[in-house]
Amino acid sequence: MLIDKHSAEPASIFLFAHQDDEFGVFQQIREEVGSGRGIRCAYLTDGRFNGVSAERRNRESLGVLARLGVQRKHVYFAGRALSIGDSHLPEHMQRASQWIGDFLKSAPPEIKIFVPAWEGGHHDHDALHAITVGVAQKAGRLKHVRQFPLYNGFGLTGPLFRVFFPLVQNGAVEKTRIPLENRIRYLRCCMGYPSQAVSWMGLFPHVLFHYFARGVQILQPVCVERVRQRPHPGRLYYERRGFFSWRQMVFHLDKWAKAENRRRTS
User: Fold this and answer.
1) Residue 241 and which of 2, 10, 70, 79 are 20 to 30 A apart at CA?
2) Tens-place pLDDT, residues 96-108
3) Predicted pLDDT of residue 260
4) Per-residue confidence (pLDDT) for residue 10, from 0 to 100
């Protein structure tokens, strides 16, 4: 695993499960780039899904990130290096946590970490959230972590879901107004994932509505206790779609915790 040495300057690290999860923090990425902070983006699954190659999905995200000012050399496709497939992150939490832990060891003290929210939308998102919170706590960096909502099905039924809907259980909501010109720019960025056209047919109307009805970047703090709690009452979105179950998530969380304990005591 090759990780370049971070400088001593303040840095911002964006951790994503999938190539296109960056849509949840377009504005935050722009703000961090504009502030002069060193930007690092990492993807913890390889992106291969429904016959779409990892290379294609990587190219799409690199193209979008370039529009936001992120340099190619600062983007890491850890999931491919670790052979973690799309939708299989819960099965490889130990491997992913080791990579993130090593990555953070070389990060400067003045750091910000952004990760998908604990919300029951996609099991890879929740697994990455749990890993990041655990690693950040161990490194004494928990206060520097912020979560961003992508989508969840709280209070809904069937295939229905909400986008950019922060769960009250996740704590205080931090909102930043997105300038109109940026909202238009980000909508164009959302068209930069042609390999995921089917998914974006469902996502895009929600994103469009959010940008023009609310127009804010949403962040929330993280909490160690939350990752042992069901994200919200009722069936989770990934359960309703038959992709994964809360029982499976608990199994993998327990398995990862036991492996971490063994590693620390060995």
Assistant:
1) 79
2) 999 999 999 888 8
3) 87
4) 77
176 SS3 class: strand
The DSSP letter of residue 118 is S
**DSSP result, 122-166:** -HHHHHHHHHHHHHHHHTT-GGGEEEE--EE-TT--TT--EES--
How many angstroms separate the Cα of 212 from the Cα of each of 23, 28, 205, 236? 16, 17, 11, 27
Q: What is the mean pLDDT of residues 63-74?
A: 97
Can you tell me whether residue 238 is helix, strand or coil? helix
Q: Which two tokens stand for residue 102?
A: 């090593």
Name the strand (E) or helix (H) holding 43: strand 38-43
Q: Are 42 and 15 spatial neighbours (Cβ–Cβ below 8 Å)?
A: yes
Pairing of strands 11-16, 111-116: parallel
Average per-residue pLDDT for the chain:
94
CA–CA gap between residue 57 and residue 125 (Å, rounded): 17
Q: Tokens for 1? A: 């695993």
pTM recorded for the entire structure: 0.96
Quick one: which of 247, 252, 46 has its CA closest to 129? 252
Residue given tokens 């029982």 in the structure block: 247
Beta-carbon contacts of 107 under 8 Å, excluding residues fewer than 6 positions away, are 6, 11, 13, 40
> What pairs with residue 115 in β-bridges?
147
Q: Give the whole-angstrom CA distance, residue 135 versus residue 1.
A: 18
List, for residues 174-189, the tens digit of each pLDDT value.
Answer: 999 999 999 999 999 9
- With the C-alpha atoms ordered 118, 122, 123, 127, is the resulting torsion angle positive or negative? negative
The answer to whether residue 135 scores a pLDDT higher than 60 is yes
Q: Are 99 and 13 in contact (CB under 8 A)?
A: no
